[in-house]
Amino acid sequence: MDISSDEVLNSWLRLTTAIGNLRITSALPYNELLICGLLYRNQKSGAPEFLTATDLCRATGMLKSQMNRTLNSMEKKGLISRTRSGQDRRQVYISFNMEQAEFYERQHEKVLFCVDTLLEKVGRNRAEEIVKLFTLISDMADEVTE
Q1: pLDDT above 60: residue 25
Q2: At 82, phi and psi to the nearest 5?
Q3: Strands laid side by side in the 80-84 sheet
Q4: Does residue 97 or residue 5 have the better pLDDT?
Q5: 3-state secondary structure string, 106-144?
Q6: What is the pLDDT of residues 74-91, one digit of tens each?
Q7: N or C: which end of the chain has fewer CB within 10 A?
Q8: Full-model pTM
Q9: What angle do CA 21, 26, 32 make, to 5 degrees?
């Protein structure tokens, strides 16, 4: 079967639209959940480095203005804190408020339940193949968009 670029694009758009429409959690918007995950995993790993808004923009693909709005919202909710660097006053480090860890973990469990449900429908025996394909596509997309 000869697949056109348009068919691949339409398939990709259907997938990303379906994922975007899942409404996995009403407690946190998608971008906030994504940022919480990055900060939470960074702190749980014991990584010595602090993350900045620029780091988060790079990791999420969000624009700086969108990131600042999202971080302001998260700070008001008590999910994050910001600390100005003592060495470079221009640097502001962002950290996850670990007192909110249980809240984040519950939201993350909802996402994992959704993924598990999808894997059951597709078949767990294909999970490794799916991960490899998603990783390949993501890596290639990063190369094409650089």
Answers
A1: no
A2: -120, 140
A3: 51-52, 92-96, 80-84
A4: 97
A5: HHHHHHHHHHHHHHHHHCHHHHHHHHHHHHHHHHHHHHH
A6: 999 999 999 998 888 889
A7: N
A8: 0.79
A9: 85
